[in-house]
Structures are given as structure tokens and as C-alpha cells.
């Protein structure tokens, strides 16, 4: 994909308010260089900083990164430990810089499965940055879209059983309010790296009308220039939300 320049636009233009990214290809990046998969995950974590900076520069307001899926728990124990170690490292190293830049960090997913020390780091990071309003960085950890939908359905069922609501109160807004992303707008744009063309159980409810862009670049090589190119492609899309435009 050719890198292009895109000027920051208003929300009346085509700059996406919310971008979601499936960061794929760390293992293949490492394998191509004869390195352990851990090296790819570390390089991938380093790529996050550049993409966050470029997203802020381009006028994106929300960025959601798929950092660790519910399915990733099925990987070999050693790789899971390495991934969790990188998450610890990122939270400890980056949170102060994010806070200085006015960035709010939020984590979505099943935290109960995460180690206690990582849960504490997440709590501390979210508390520290909770009042920042310049940009929201959302990281999906131990996250699965189907699981999120089941949790929302269960929450609605519990509210009906307790008498807080009646079945007739259940609509799309009521359902959305029980998702992890209840106060976050749905993604305008989903990017997946590494050439794979599937959504992999990510933000299934929220992506009903997201534009999808798939790039061949492996995540560790996903630069600010490639990110800008995806925004340029988004800029060319005609978003109709099911309507017909004359």
C-alpha cells in the first residue's frame, strides 16, 4: 500500500473518529528473521507507540487495539507467559508518557483471567489517566466478541429477573449499554495487518457498519506511513449505512 499524506479533518469530513486494529503478524515477522516469537511480540509492542502518535496527529479520537484475545490463552504456556510479560512491560513503561500527553488508557475484556499484578497495573493506569480527554487508547486484553455478547445478554436477563426492566425495555441501546464499550462510539474503521481477511471474534456487535481495511504489512512493520495510507483509503469510502445516496 502506498503511503500518502492526509490532513486532519473535522468530523464532517472522512477522518474516522474511532479506529480499531487487529495487530497480526508478530510471529511471522520473527520467523522470517529466524527469531523466537517473543521477539516479534516485543517489536509489535514498540510499534504501538508510533501508531498512537500518528492517530493523535491525524485527528482520530479513539483507538482500540486487539492486544490479547480470549483464544490466545490456548497458545503454549511459554508464549502466554511471554505475552503477559510484554503487557506488564508496556503498562509500566508507557503509562507515564501517555498521561503526559493527555491520553486516557482503558482496558476491555475478561480481567478475571489475567494475573493479579496485571489487573493492579491496569487499575492504576486507568485511575491515573481517567481525567484525560485528548485521546482514548483502548486495549482489548483477554477479550472475545462472542463472550462480550453473552455477558451483555446475561446482564439483561439478570435485570429482567430482578425486576429492574421488563423484556419490552430491551432494544439495541439497552444491549449496547451492557457491553464493555458502552460509552465508546462504534469503530468507523477496522484495520487488520498481515494479509489475513477476517475479524477473529473482535468487536462483533460494534462493527456492524465499520469500514474494513486489510493490509499485507506485518504488525511490527506497521508504520505511521502505512497507517496514514489506511486513513486515505477510508477517506475514499462512501459510507451509506444501508441507505441509498442519490
TrEMBL record:
<feature type="binding site">
    <location>
        <position position="192"/>
    </location>
    <ligand>
        <name>substrate</name>
    </ligand>
</feature>
<feature type="binding site">
    <location>
        <position position="211"/>
    </location>
    <ligand>
        <name>Mg(2+)</name>
    </ligand>
</feature>
<comment type="function">
    <text>Catalyzes the condensation of isopentenyl diphosphate (IPP) with allylic pyrophosphates generating different type of terpenoids.</text>
</comment>
<feature type="binding site">
    <location>
        <position position="37"/>
    </location>
    <ligand>
        <name>substrate</name>
    </ligand>
</feature>
<dbReference type="InterPro" id="IPR036424">
    <property type="entry name" value="UPP_synth-like_sf"/>
</dbReference>
<feature type="active site" description="Proton acceptor">
    <location>
        <position position="72"/>
    </location>
</feature>
<feature type="binding site">
    <location>
        <begin position="198"/>
        <end position="200"/>
    </location>
    <ligand>
        <name>substrate</name>
    </ligand>
</feature>
<keyword id="KW-0808">Transferase</keyword>
<dbReference type="GO" id="GO:0005829">
    <property type="term" value="C:cytosol"/>
</dbReference>
<feature type="binding site">
    <location>
        <position position="75"/>
    </location>
    <ligand>
        <name>substrate</name>
    </ligand>
</feature>
<dbReference type="InterPro" id="IPR001441">
    <property type="entry name" value="UPP_synth-like"/>
</dbReference>
<feature type="binding site">
    <location>
        <position position="73"/>
    </location>
    <ligand>
        <name>substrate</name>
    </ligand>
</feature>
<keyword id="KW-0460">Magnesium</keyword>
<dbReference type="InterPro" id="IPR018520">
    <property type="entry name" value="UPP_synth-like_CS"/>
</dbReference>
<feature type="binding site">
    <location>
        <position position="29"/>
    </location>
    <ligand>
        <name>substrate</name>
    </ligand>
</feature>
<feature type="binding site">
    <location>
        <position position="41"/>
    </location>
    <ligand>
        <name>substrate</name>
    </ligand>
</feature>
<feature type="binding site">
    <location>
        <position position="24"/>
    </location>
    <ligand>
        <name>Mg(2+)</name>
    </ligand>
</feature>
<protein>
    <recommendedName>
        <fullName>Isoprenyl transferase</fullName>
        <ecNumber>2.5.1.-</ecNumber>
    </recommendedName>
</protein>
<dbReference type="GO" id="GO:0016094">
    <property type="term" value="P:polyprenol biosynthetic process"/>
</dbReference>
<dbReference type="Pfam" id="PF01255">
    <property type="entry name" value="Prenyltransf"/>
</dbReference>
<keyword id="KW-0479">Metal-binding</keyword>
<feature type="active site">
    <location>
        <position position="24"/>
    </location>
</feature>
<comment type="similarity">
    <text>Belongs to the UPP synthase family.</text>
</comment>
<feature type="binding site">
    <location>
        <begin position="25"/>
        <end position="28"/>
    </location>
    <ligand>
        <name>substrate</name>
    </ligand>
</feature>
<dbReference type="GO" id="GO:0008834">
    <property type="term" value="F:ditrans,polycis-undecaprenyl-diphosphate synthase [(2E,6E)-farnesyl-diphosphate specific] activity"/>
</dbReference>
<comment type="subunit">
    <text>Homodimer.</text>
</comment>
<dbReference type="GO" id="GO:0000287">
    <property type="term" value="F:magnesium ion binding"/>
</dbReference>
<feature type="binding site">
    <location>
        <begin position="69"/>
        <end position="71"/>
    </location>
    <ligand>
        <name>substrate</name>
    </ligand>
</feature>
Amino acid at each position: 500500500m502506498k503511503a500518502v499524506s492526509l490532513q486532519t479533518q473535522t468530523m464532517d469530513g472522512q477522518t474516522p473518529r474511532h479506529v480499531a486494529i487487529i495487530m497480526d503478524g508478530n510471529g511471522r515477522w520473527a520467523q522470517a528473521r529466524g527469531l523466537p516469537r517473543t521477539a516479534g511480540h516485543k517489536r509489535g509492542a514498540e510499534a504501538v507507540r508510533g501508531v498512537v502518535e500518528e492517530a493523535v496527529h491525524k485527528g482520530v479520537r479513539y483507538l482500540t487495539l486487539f492486544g490479547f484475545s480470549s483464544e490466545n490463552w490456548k497458545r503454549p504456556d511459554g508464549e502466554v507467559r511471554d505475552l503477559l510479560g510484554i503487557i506488564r512491560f508496556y503498562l509500566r513503561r508507557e503509562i507515564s508518557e501517555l498521561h503526559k500527553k493527555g491520553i486516557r488508557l482503558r482496558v476491555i475484556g475478561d480481567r478475571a483471567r489475567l494475573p493479579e499484578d496485571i489487573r493492579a497495573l491496569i487499575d492504576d493506569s486507568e485511575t491515573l489517566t481517567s481525567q484525560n480527554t485528548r485521546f482514548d487508547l483502548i486495549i482489548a486484553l483477554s477479550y472475545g466478541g462472542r463472550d462480550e455478547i453473552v455477558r451483555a445478554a446475561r446482564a439483561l436477563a439478570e435485570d429482567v429477573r430482578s425486576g429492574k426492566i421488563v423484556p419490552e425495555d430491551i432494544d439495541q441501546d439497552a444491549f449496547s449499554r451492557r457491553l464493555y464499550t458502552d460509552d465508546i462510539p462504534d469503530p468507523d474503521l477496522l484495520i487488520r495487518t498481515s494479509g489475513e481477511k477476517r475479524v477473529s471474534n473482535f468487536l462483533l456487535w460494534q462493527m456492524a457498519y465499520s469500514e474494513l481495511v486489510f493490509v499485507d504489512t506485518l504488525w511490527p512493520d506497521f508504520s505511521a506511513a502505512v497507517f496514514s495510507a489506511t486513513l486515505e483509503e477510508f477517506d475514499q469510502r462512501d459510507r451509506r449505512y444501508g441507505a441509498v445516496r442519490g
